[in-house]
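2024-03-11 09:14:02 INFO receiving multi-entity request
2024-03-11 09:14:02 INFO entity count = two
2024-03-11 09:14:03 INFO echoing inputs for audit
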Amino acid sequence: MKKLLIALLFSFVSTSAFADGHSPCGVTDGSIKILANEFTTYRIFMDEVKSCAGDGADFSVTHSVDHNKLQVAALSANPAEFSAKLVTNGSITTLMNDNLIRPLDDLVAKYGSALQDNQKIVIDGKIYAIAFMANAQHLWYRESILNDLGIAVPSTYEEVIAAAEKIKASGKMANPYAGAFKSGWNLGQEFVNMYLGHGGDFFKAGTAEVSVNNDKGVAALNMLKRLTEVSNPDFLTQDTNAVKEEWESGNVALMHVWNSGAASLLDDEGDQMIKADTRLANSPTVGGGSKPATTLWWDGFGIATNTSDANAEASFRALLGAATSTEMANANPNATIWLIDGYTPGDTAGPVVDAANRGATPYPSLPYMALLHGALSTELVEFLQGNESAEKALADVEAAYVAKATEQGFL
Amino acid sequence: MPHKTFFWFFFPSGLAMLLFIGLPIISSFFQSLHIEPEQILMEVEKCDPFGCKTETKVDIEATTKLQEEQPLGRFNGLGTYGDRNHLAFEEIKEAWGNSSSMSEFIDILLNLPFYKALLFTLTFCFAVTPPVVVLGFIVALSINTLTKSLKGPTIFGVILPMIVTPLIGSLVLFWMIDAKGILGATIQYLFDDPNLSLKSSSQLTWITLIIYGIWHNTPFAFVVFYAALQTVPQDPIEAAIIDGASRYERVRHIVIPHLYPVATFIILICLMDNFRVLEPIIGFAAEGVAQSLSWMIYNDLRSENKMLFGSAGATSMLTIIGVAFLLTPVLIRTWKEFRTER
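2024-03-11 09:21:47 INFO inference complete, emitting structure
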């Protein structure tokens, strides 16, 4: 059944042109410099990229959780600091805005015979990126703790809070819930999830005019506040990696983090008792909505505009080799949901498929979304600390966005 | 020194200052007067693993053309300085008219990003500098009395906080004050409160940052004071000993007056350094509750979108003006001392 859903969701279209393509691997010259986010799945992917590149090319990869903050400066230089960047539906728009990644149609025609059509990110008729995985945030829980206290797996955020309060009252854990609330990108993302879960729209249709200061925004903020009350008091300093560490230390029984977290949470390192007790659940709905409060993401790669054609081709070949490697995908079936041809999904794919089936929206790829996300990152903190009302916080978000969008020329 | 000799002596450093400090400031100022050209938007079809839909995108050709016509961007005059993310004139005017009491007005004012950052920056400056001067002096005095064999290793230990890169130093402390870190756990034990967390409340975060600032800056004050202590004339001290002055009296009436100009110098440098506080905020992941002016510049240039050069330039100019204001009293004082000595 799961496989069937995946097949429906990602509408696998296998390509038959295997015979006439060039093999991408075994790059003999050129320089491959890649900027990427830092998490285990990307490390697995990059190992494959490196082995595909071979010894002939000058290969280096920079993993950084601040990749989004570095990308514009690094790729604007000419020649660019990096020849390729791992992108998502969130980060690609910023690069597209400034024309920092190049169309890949020629390279795809030359080497891309093993690509599936749904891996090609086509914008205005041109391929700008190649996707290799799909990701989403969803609920994780500790089965034994929920069973001991007779708690059913929560399917709404209201139930998540009730469950967390029950665990807290039982004395098993002081702060049973965790989410990536670190002020900055993570906190903005939590609001994006919760606001979309309430059915909100970020902008007035077809314009760059923001509209988050409404009932849905207030409800979303109040829900975040209640979640932080059952979280570690240091929540404003915890990003996804810190939350995963809390989980592996056994301090948390419920959390809402990325599906790709399975690569490190379910590996053979760390406390095997906790690993054996870790379960994945569908992302909860909120406020009586039908859509789960989460966003769908694809991860892929783009090639810098400001790099030589030789380096662009070398980088494309190495990355493409990994993005079409059925062996890598099937050797790590639980690391994420690979979009690669011939991949058999592992046990952990369910929540992402469920989110897609229940109508979760992909993260908005709008040119001005990054500005709003930035405003959310800094302006929500005071509300979560109890120093400001939800309406005031949202008014601040809108005002900060307007000032930035005006300076950027969107308004 | 004849004027000509002085000119040639000063010329290389003067030229370097002009090239590497003067010109960048002028360029930042010009950049701060401009904003990005208008972004031309267009509707296009986008296809990804989740399906195809029509979405907005920047029309790269048209926007690039606009950018080539105006490489600096659109002229905005002092508009960026007055917008909400900087001096926020309109918001202040509105708040002044609408707020019923002074405290309400101050609340609104300190909610604006620039004033919030200014408050933290000034608090940090004035909370860190005096303890640094006092502590640096005490440490220098104590080490000066040590025997020769102990001096070397002790001095090395004392200047260690200055040697450690600020970002690394603050990260190390950040992990130590974690609820499970050695300092965090000890504090919880001492106050008998298992929920006490130095990272969770803004007041405690501010205090942590200030203590870090004192820890990091004290060695600088120590080094300068220690060097100055070597120049204290021995004759009056010996005379004082003969007259029966206690150690405290000798320090109070001979050493301190001698070190006064040095203290002014340390205060000057410390105020200037602390006004630019940035690394501890990043290291302690305190962006949420403590923002400084430098952090605002950093955030404009390192946010998840196009770099906001105009905004960063405006904040830089305001920071320079702030430093100038801060240093004026100290500089006037130094000038007066200089005049009387002549």
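2024-03-11 09:21:48 INFO post-check: Residues 137-294+361-408 of chain A form a domain with the D-Maltodextrin-Binding Protein; domain 2 fold (CATH 3.40.190.10).
2024-03-11 09:21:48 INFO post-check: Residues 214 and 360 of chain A are 21 Å apart (CA to CA).
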